[in-house]
Specification:
Strand order of the largest sheet: 1-4-5-6-7-10-11-12
GO cellular component, one term: cytoplasm
Structural class: alpha/beta
Number of domains: 1
Helix content: 25-40%
Main location: cytoplasm
Shape: globular
Function: IGPS catalyzes the conversion of PRFAR and glutamine to IGP, AICAR and glutamate. The HisF subunit catalyzes the cyclization activity that produces IGP and AICAR from PRFAR using the ammonia provided by the HisH subunit.
Distance between the termini: 20 Å
Radius of gyration: 17 Å
CATH class: Alpha Beta
Number of helices: 10
Keywords: Amino-acid biosynthesis, Cytoplasm, Histidine biosynthesis, Lyase
CATH topology: TIM Barrel
Family: Belongs to the HisA/HisF family.
Order of helices and strands: EEEHEHEHEHHEEEHEHEHEHH
């Protein structure tokens, strides 16, 4: 049995760690470099860093902060936001990231996934998916629609169809974020996670909605996720990574225990 992963998410805006609810009302809550170091020391399996306004502002990612985070930790590090070209990917990798997350630009330019996988290997390319539940229609048969530019632009693209296409293009992993659940601390969108996990063969990271360890248990079992992204739970000192892993391990979910 492969170990499940716990991955703190650092949403960064103007150089500050930030947190919102359903992609709105973000407030600044700290220093992303210090947060990354703290979660690494607590036993996180990976760290995800999103420059959440790079795409919507049509600017490059904050590469200096990426470099500082990479220097502070010794675990895999995924970076997303404002990545439009293979050269952007190269800059992020040279700054210390092991993985590149592509989201808005990949939806607008799907060959970017293939180009990135060819240049750096599929294991480096993470497809970020921001998804909203909508009415079932001929265009959106799954009832879940892709939304880009930080939740601002609906695309008319079915989330399940896009996940399958991105896998065929060479994406090595999917980070699946439910806009409806994001920041609510009421639990992950289990149906969405199970739908995507059951229809692709690459790992799926569940994102959006974690508020207590039981939520991670549910998405890692019933949702069939390979990993769980967390933010509010640890940003607001409700739980440590050790607390979460100890609980999940007690539930028979295999964890990497670093202590």
């Amino acid at each position: 049995m492969l170990s499940k992963r716990i991955i703190p998410c650092l949403d960064v805006r103007a150089g500050k760690l930030t947190k919102g609810i359903k992609f709105k009302a973000n407030i600044d809550i700290g220093d992303p470099v210090e947060a990354a170091r703290q979660y690494y020391e607590q036993g996180a399996d990976e760290i995800v860093f999103y420059d959440i306004t790079a795409s919507s502002d049509s600017r490059d990612i904050m590469i200096d902060i990426v470099r500082q985070v990479a220097e502070a930790i010794m675990i895999p590090f995924s970076v997303g936001g404002g990545i439009r070209t293979v050269e952007d990917m190269r800059r992020v990798i040279l700054a210390g990231a092991e993985k590149i997350s592509v989201n808005s630009e990949a939806v607008k330019n799907p060959p970017l996934i293939r180009e990135g996988a060819k240049a750096f290997g599929s294991q480096c390319i993470v497809l970020g998916m921001d998804v909203k539940k909508v009415d079932v229609s001929p265009a959106i048969p799954s009832g879940y629609e892709m939304v880009i530019h930080g939740g601002r632009v609906f695309t008319g693209i079915d989330a399940l169809a896009w996940a399958k296409e991105a896998e065929s293009l060479g994406a090595g992993e999917i980070c699946l974020n439910s806009i409806d659940a994001d920041g609510t601390q009421e639990g992950y969108e289990i149906d969405l996670t199970s739908l995507i996990s059951s229809n692709v063969s690459i790992p799926v990271i569940a994102s959006g909605g974690a508020g207590k360890p039981e939520h991670l248990r549910d998405v890692l079992t019933r949702g069939r996720a390979d990993a769980a992204l967390i933010a509010s739970m640890v940003h607001y000192d409700m739980y440590t990574i050790k607390d979460i892993k100890t609980y999940l391990n007690s539930q028979g979910i295999k964890m990497r225990m670093f202590w």
